[in-house]
Design a protein that fits this description.
- Helices cover 37% and strands 31% of the residues.
- Strand 1, helix 2 and strand 2 form a beta-alpha-beta unit.
- The chain folds into two domains: 34 residues; 142 residues, Lipoprotein like domain (Double Stranded RNA Binding Domain, 2-Layer Sandwich).
- It is built from three helices and five strands.
- Helix 2 packs across helix 3.
- The chain has a five-stranded mixed β-sheet.
């Protein structure tokens, strides 16, 4: 509404103006309340923090026995588990029996299998001619069994579980090098899965 100089506002229109202002004020207050509520919920969600058991504030990584013929897998899983627990930050990583719980287990098995192949000979060869193909992608698997125990006790805090890590590799000139790299990558993936299972088990 525009009021020119010399004109007077009709009293009959005053209530509607006041009403409009009142509606605007109420809308603003409502929006502010919603914003504060959302912010409060967001803060509470953020402050929830770790999913770890409330009585487990520290973990030590113990020995991982090795049931395979690949001797490097045990120490590798142990080192990677410690690394990923430290990165996760849900629990303090300590050494020895000062920990609230000890993560330990064993390497159950590993496998390296051909996942895909590519044709290397003339297109005229029949598709069923196996000599015309060579492996193009390999998949490495490392299976780990793990549990959480109290220091000095055989009773598990977290009963034994299994997880498998995977890694896919393209063909390399040196098969032995690619084999070692594949096992390292699969072991790292298994350690990531194991860490997530431990920190989110509760």
């Amino acid at each position: 509404m525009t009021i020119r100089k010399g004109e007077f506002l009709d009293p009959a229109t005053r209530p509607s103006v006041a009403c409009n202002l009142s509606r605007t004020s109420r809308s603003g207050v409502a929006l502010l309340a919603v914003a504060l509520l959302v912010g409060s919920v967001g803060c509470r969600c953020y402050q929830m923090g770790s999913l770890m058991h409330p009585q487990i504030n520290s973990i030590a990584v113990g020995r991982f026995a090795n049931d395979t013929d690949e001797p490097r897998l045990g120490p590798l899983i142990q080192a990677k588990a410690a690394e990923h627990l430290m990165v996760d930050g849900s629990v303090k990583l300590v050494v020895g029996n000062s920990a609230d719980a000890i993560l330990q287990g064993k390497i159950v098995s590993y496998q390296i299998n051909q996942l895909a192949s590519s044709k290397i000979r003339a297109k005229a060869n029949r598709d069923r001619d196996s000599d015309a193909y060579q492996p193009a992608i390999w998949r490495a698997r490392v299976t780990v069994e793990f549990q959480l125990t109290r220091p000095g006790s055989e009773d598990p805090v977290l009963t034994a579980r299994r997880t498998t890590g995977y890694a896919d590799l393209s063909r390399f000139p040196d098969l032995n090098v690619s084999r070692q790299e594949g096992l390292q990558m699969a072991a790292n993936d298994a350690a990531i899965r194991m860490t997530a299972s431990v920190t989110e088990a509760w």
